[in-house]
Specification:
This protein has 23 helices and 18 strands. By secondary structure, the protein is α/β, with parallel strands linked by helices. It has a 6-stranded parallel beta sheet with strand order 2-1-3-4-6-5, sandwiched between helices. Helix 1 packs across helix 2 and helix 14 packs across helix 15.
Length: 570
């Protein structure tokens, strides 16, 4: 018997490497899920499709392999939007099967009719409708190939009645994968070589484009005696075992990375698309390397642009540039970085106060060397990027390009399914966790051994920081939370709450040792600020204005707590 469209889609995507499909069954999707039932692709039923989008993105990002989502017509597929925007901006290869109303009803304002292509074209590398069974084999292969080659989301909109139809054509389309590099010409390198040969204070700023170029980047840094600052997305590739690394710049960064970028004479951007212009250097010579021509000069004016893969370009530059014998600049940046790391750790003097950095450092110290971490957007993400060290197998993931709340444990859910024998740890804010709590039930139902840490500061703390920096009284950020540890126990997870610093290490050890899903809630200091590497005069003035307003509003105790928590020695 010939395969129908639903079966063709499943077979083609499975042959392209897909192992799991996330979604909620029902309605126009039923024939697709029935085809999955007869395949080797695992169906992962979630309680909310947004969680499914995050989970698929997390799995695809960590594995580099194709992962699937599937949604029913209208509302079901729409629920994936936020999770798939995040997956797309994280360069995760995901295919969404967005089922549609019957083809004959399209355009008649039929119940649940939604134009999925207009919506998903904003967050995809491929987005097409299968309007006839003959299109199915070709479209499925094209979608998988685009997702894998372009590292993003591909969307197939499929009317429910088309799912059951059988094509007459017997052509067997399949997705192809490619391994290639882009090496710039010798002539294209000349301006960069001339600039680097002048010596002086040279800094490398490494971005996500360094994913497969770690050895070449470090070798070039060795020849130039150049400190390597890195963007938050490059942490997994550049940070570990790197004698030249000086951390991040920007709001998430510390002083080593900030000064290395801001005060250099020559800045070499490698696969880097750092968006915040105020952190670039004034008057420096800027050289940018990227395999995408449209990235050159996109974020900040550059003097020299080179189109090429980072690995090939660094290898070519290393052969062409003269060694830089001066080490003073590198040593100065490294000293600043070490001091700023120590300063940012924030040890406590009181067992009744737990700083979020202390919780993060305890998790870093007690977790496995091949553990995988996710973090919610906001202050928790800062603590992860600063204080969870990466390694050859130890990786991190957060919503850096999309910047959404509630990403951490849904992403970690998918990662844990892909790596069932490894520690997967989700670092969650109380606001982020409570936004999508329903799929904690999925962890219980499927016995997914995910470990969730909740930083409970009873507020949307990053929003509070934004308000205070603007000189505002913080408003509408307070959260009245439940006992998250008790909630976890009530629905079948291991759960515990910690309120004292001297109980922290034992609690983290016990939590990580649990064989099944486990949630550790830690009451962290609500007055902790994310201190950037450089505090502008306007920020100081605005924070002082906030303090004055708080005093006049009868909140003097908060001002005292803020000062003690962030500006006085522990």
């Amino acid at each position: 018997m010939s395969a129908n469209v639903a079966e063709i889609l499943v077979n083609t995507l499975q042959n392209a490497g897909a192992k799991r499909c996330y979604g909620v069954v029902g309605d126009s999707l039923n024939h697709f899920t029935d085809a999955l039932r007869h395949s080797d692709v695992e169906w992962v039923g979630v309680r909310h499709e947004e969680v499914g989008g995050f989970a698929a993105g997390g799995e695809a990002y960590m594995t580099g392999e194709l992962t699937l989502c599937a949604g029913s017509c209208g509302p079901g597929s729409l629920h994936f939007v936020n999770g798939l925007f995040d997956a797309h901006r994280n360069n995760a290869p995901v295919v969404l099967i967005a089922s549609h109303i019957a083809l004959g009803e399209v355009g008649s304002q039929f119940p649940q009719e939604v134009d999925q292509t207009d919506i998903y074209k904003q967050c995809s590398v491929f987005c097409e409708t299968i309007a006839s069974p003959e299109q199915a084999p070709r479209m499925a292969a094209m979608a998988a190939q685009a997702a894998l080659a372009k590292r993003g989301v591909a969307v197939l909109v499929v009317p429910g009645d088309v799912m059951t139809q059988t094509p007459q054509s017997k052509l067997d389309f399949q997705a192809h994968t490619f391994d290639y590099s882009i090496r710039p010409s010798a002539e294209a390198l000349v301006p960069a070589v001339q600039a680097l040969n002048k010596g002086g204070k040279i800094t490398i700023f490494a971005g996500a484009g360094c994913e497969n170029a770690r050895e070449q980047v470090i070798a070039l840094a060795e020849k130039l005696n150049a400190p390597i600052a890195w963007t938050s997305r490059a942490k997994n590739y550049i940070e570990y075992d790197n004698p030249y690394q000086v951390g991040m710049t920007g709001v998430y960064g510390l002083e080593g990375g900030y000064h290395a970028v801001a005060e250099c004479d020559t800045l070499l951007l490698l696969g880097c698309s750092f968006a915040f212009a105020q952190f670039y250097p004034d008057g420096a010579k800027i050289i940018q390397v990227d395999h995408e021509p449209n990235q050159i000069g996109k974020r900040y004016p550059v003097d020299v642009g080179i189109v090429g893969s980072v690995a090939d370009t660094c290898e070519a530059l290393n052969q062409a540039v003269k060694p830089n014998e001066h080490t003073g600049w590198l040593e100065k940046c490294q000293k600043r970085y070490r001091k700023s790391l120590e300063k940012s750790a924030h040890d406590t003097r009181s067992n009744t106060t737990i700083h979020p950095q202390e919780l993060t450092l305890a998790i870093d110290r007690l977790s496995d060397e091949n553990a995988l971490f996710t973090a919610d957007t906001g202050s928790v993400n800062v603590w992860m990027l600063r204080h969870i060290h990466s390694g050859p197998e130890r990786k991190t993931l957060s919503s850096l390009q999309h910047g959404t709340m509630a990403n951490a444990y849904p992403q970690a859910l998918g990662i844990q399914l892909a790596y069932p024998e490894r520690q997967v740890i989700a670092l969650c804010g109380d606001g982020g966790l409570s936004m999508l709590m329903g799929d904690l039930l999925t962890l219980v139902q499927r016995k997914i051994p995910l470990k969730i840490a909740v930083y409970n500061n009873q507020s949307l703390s990053f929003v509070e920081l934004e308000q205070k920096v603007e000189g505002m009284i913080d408003a509408y950020t307070e959260l009245e939370n439940p006992d998250f540890g008790g909630v976890a126990r009530a629905i079948g997870l291991w759960g515990k709450r910690v309120e004292r610093e001297d109980e922290l290490d034992d609690a983290v050890t016990e939590w990580l040792a649990q064989p099944g899903p486990a949630l550790l809630e830690v009451m962290t200091n609500p007055m902790e600020l994310v201190m950037p590497p450089k505090v502008e005069a306007g920020q100081v003035g605005a924070t002082a204005l906030y303090s004055a307003k708080a005093v006049l509003s009868g909140r003097m105790d908060e001002v005292v707590h803020l000062v003690k928590s962030n500006f006085l020695k522990r």
